[in-house]
Amino acid sequence: MEVAPIGAQARTLPDPRQVPSKGVIPVMRARGLVLTAPGHLALQEFDLRPPDPGEVRIRVAGCGLCHTDISFYSGAVKTRHRLPLVLGHEIAGTVVEAPPPHADLLGKDVVVPAVIPCDTCDLCRAGHANACLSQIMPGNHADGGFATDIVVPGRHLAVLGSDRGGYDLAELAVIADAVTTPYQALERAGAKAGDLVIVIGVGGIGTYGVQIALARGARVAAIDIDAAKLERLAQFKPDWTFNVRETDGSAIKKKLMAESAVSTSRWKILEMSGTAPGQELAWSLLVPAATLGVIGFTMDKPQIRLSNLMALDATAFGSWGCSPTLYPAVLDLVFSGRVTLRPFIERRPIAEGPELFARLTGAHEGAARRTILIPK
Amino acid sequence: MEVAPIGAQARTLPDPRQVPSKGVIPVMRARGLVLTAPGHLALQEFDLRPPDPGEVRIRVAGCGLCHTDISFYSGAVKTRHRLPLVLGHEIAGTVVEAPPPHADLLGKDVVVPAVIPCDTCDLCRAGHANACLSQIMPGNHADGGFATDIVVPGRHLAVLGSDRGGYDLAELAVIADAVTTPYQALERAGAKAGDLVIVIGVGGIGTYGVQIALARGARVAAIDIDAAKLERLAQFKPDWTFNVRETDGSAIKKKLMAESAVSTSRWKILEMSGTAPGQELAWSLLVPAATLGVIGFTMDKPQIRLSNLMALDATAFGSWGCSPTLYPAVLDLVFSGRVTLRPFIERRPIAEGPELFARLTGAHEGAARRTILIPK
User: Fold this and answer.
1) Which of B145, B120, B149, B150 is nearest to B135 (CA)?
2) Cβ contact (<8 Å) for A288 and B128?
3) Which of A64, A181, A199, B112 allows an S-S link to B91, with CB 3.0 to 4.6 Å?
4) d(C-alpha A121, C-alpha A131), whole Å
5) Which among A263, A295, A317 has CB closest to B122?
6) So what's the pLDDT on residue A288?
7) Which pLDDT value is given to residue A376?
């Protein structure tokens, strides 16, 4: 099969069975998880065009499987690029083809930012790279990383040195979204030492949200419906954990008010479950001059009194991805051991992808560990 | 009847029919609109205690009637202080009793801020005076300004000089909420020259929101369901007006995208109708990196996809009242003629208050002009 090539606009590629002649772009065959229609994902060979100037080809070491991929798979959220499309946006790998101006990247191990801004649009120039109008998110705007190879822009790649905190390259794939997304959200919330950070949903990204908040010296409350997910956070010593199967927003707020002694203007409530009940819980925790961040995504509409923002002079923000400029700080947190990946990840061969997607779709709770699919 | 005295905590007042003896606090008789139960408002005499140190007594020149007063009257929103209570929080008047440390205020004409912060709580010290935990809003936390006299804190009163732009004192009552509240919201939104400011609901506060945004050099779109309200704004030359009885959010967004040429990160969408449909419209206008302000209040819960904040990397804030520190800038806008009050206000004798409250309750559209009740 031939999937649409990378880039916002589809182009016609030559038939690879023809002998390339002068002037015809040579293509290579890659192998990856191709979504042809909602619910239809298969490991297939596909044509991969060579990198244009400004782009590089990366041999993928591993690609993390995110809740968003499941939403694309099920059809709950449409990909920006039409199907068929290779999914996957949490990518680590090695640059194996690097035309100018990125020849210096050849052979380098890199993490590919999940959202790659264009640097030139109005929003990029206004300091809103996150909302870049021409952003490329692999596996959404273009073919993604559940594949042997991927062609991506060479700009903004996070180049790895020799100190990797004991992690191997594939494991670092989860930096590109699972770890950087909560980092950006905590930056955006202005979370600092002495603040109260409340993380709702300690799954794929929330586990890192809790660790990053603790690394910043905040007091942290972790909330989930899954006792096992709360228990495995115990090693990081969050100040409070709450299982909302056993308590509710009103009791949580009361307890945090009584015990935290943190001024309400320093409450940062971060919704990372991507569910309407999680968003309703977040809203119920609003206090005067507090900040609420929406980091998880759901198409569902929660039942919330929007006017509470006014009555409490409060702020709600949404945070999309992470600016590539913040990746070095995130890598430093991971390599220095202040943020730990290993209890929260597992590797599986890419061939297990289709079965794994099917299993996770419609599951009430996410996977216990984030799966990194290995294409080799 | 004896209403609860001003201040967050009720105190026992002496029976005014007794001859005051040494050590007994003398009280005076005032006259005002007392809400005894939802829907029960009457012009009555009541006991008014003398000002404590730090407070002053003001002879009220006029008090504006706000949508919030109607919500208190109907019972849709409860007052913070128990009933019975004198309503009214848009007050202009003359200081007639001023014990130390505010003796210098005696005889001064003033506007009373609708929300008076304490200056000492955590939130005040953290720069969030709007959300002050011990704030006093007359007619909500304490007896209000639909009365001949009121006792309020002497701090933060906006003292008027001789240049009043041709307005008389009673007319300036609407500064305290109707004009300052949208000013604070535009400050909070960071609205500046060249931004696109979209005001939804050009009633009591929205009319001023439009004028203030234009005075700041923003491009302005005014939206309402009332053609007459939109027409009377024509003299101020907003860039666009939309009647949502004739169009919808999708068409408005498309038109503003095509015609404004303002980067979406500079869109400031300000909901001032205080209705769920207005909030849903505001939400539908969200664009990448935009800012949405909730300034009107409703207990209703709109149907909104909260996650759009995340997908668009956008911000929503609520703005409550206005910091007294901003009142001088607002007075300057009004006295210099850049913001015009007169087409939007009318005076009525306070005796007409009960009938007016009853008429406005449940009305689908607010009053064409904001009524200033005159106690004399």
Assistant:
1) B120
2) yes
3) B112
4) 10
5) A263
6) 96
7) 84
User: In the predicted model, is pLDDT for residue A363 greater than 80?
Assistant: no
For an interface test with B, which of A307, A320, A322 has the most B Cβ atoms less than 10 Å from its Cβ?
A307
Residue B13 pLDDT more than 90? no
Per the CB < 8 Å rule, is A296 touching B305? no
Residue B27: which of B13, B10, B43, B9 has the closest Cα?
B13
Closest to A219 (Cα-Cα) out of A242, A248, A199, A246: A199
Exposed (0-12), middle (13-18) or buried (19+): which is B138, by Cβ within 10 Å?
Answer: buried
Determine, for residues A318 and B301 on separate chains, whether the beta-carbon distance falls below 8 Å.
no
Write down the pLDDT at residue A12: 37
Q: How far is A299 from chain B (nearest CA, A)?
A: 7
> Model confidence over A233-284: pLDDT tens digits?
999 999 999 999 999 999 999 999 999 999 999 999 999 999 999 999 999 9
SS (H, E, C) A295-355: CCCCCCCCCCCCCHHHHCCCEEEECCCCCHHHHHHHHHHHHCCCCCCHHHEEEEEHHHHHH
Model pLDDT, residue B9: 34
User: Residue B299 and residue A307: Cβ atoms within 8 Å?
Assistant: yes
| A316 contact residues in B (CB cutoff 8 A) | 306, 309, 315-317
Min Cα distance A302 → chain B (Å) is 7
Please tell me the predicted confidence (pLDDT) of residue A5.
31
Least CB-CB distance to B288: which of A133, A279, A296? A133
Interface touch A313/B131, C-beta < 8 Å: yes
- For β-strands B291-294 and B267-271, DSSP reports them as parallel
Q: Tell me how many residue pairs between chain A and chain B have CB atoms under 8 A apart.
A: 145
Which residue in B126, B307, B313 is closest to A298 by CB distance? B307
Interface test with A, best of B128, B188, B306, B315 (most A CBs within 10 A): B306
How much is the pLDDT for B190?
Answer: 97
Residue B346 to residue B173: CA distance in whole angstroms: 11
Closest to A72 in 3D by CA, of A152, A144, A151: A144
Q: From A295, which residue of chain B is nearest by alpha-carbon distance?
A: B310
CA B294 to CA B278: how far, in whole Å? 10
Separation between Cα atoms, residue A139 and residue A134, nearest integer Å: 15
| A273, closest residue in chain B (CA to CA) | B307
Q: Residues of B with CB below 8 A from A266's CB? A: 126
* Per-residue confidence band for A109, with pLDDT thresholds at 50, 70 and 90: very high
Look at residue B3 and tell me whether its pLDDT is greater than 70.
no
Radius of gyration of chain A (CA): 21
d(CA B333, CA B341): 11
Cα dihedral A56, A60, A66, A71 sign: positive
Per the prediction, chain B carries an average pLDDT of 92
Q: Which residues of A touch B (CB under 8 A)?
A: 122-123, 126, 128, 130-131, 133, 263-266, 274, 279, 288-289, 294-320
CA-to-CA distance for A18 and A72, rounded, in angstroms? 34
Share of chain A above pLDDT 70, in %: 92
DSSP 3-state assignment of A370? strand
Q: What is the pLDDT of residues B57-87, one digit of tens each?
A: 999 999 999 989 999 999 999 999 999 999 9
User: Residue A367: what residue type?
Assistant: A
Residue percentage of chain B with pLDDT more than 70:
92
Residues A279, A297: Cα–Cα separation, whole Å: 10
Name the residue type at position A204: G
Dihedral of alpha carbons A275, B248, A124, A198, sign? negative
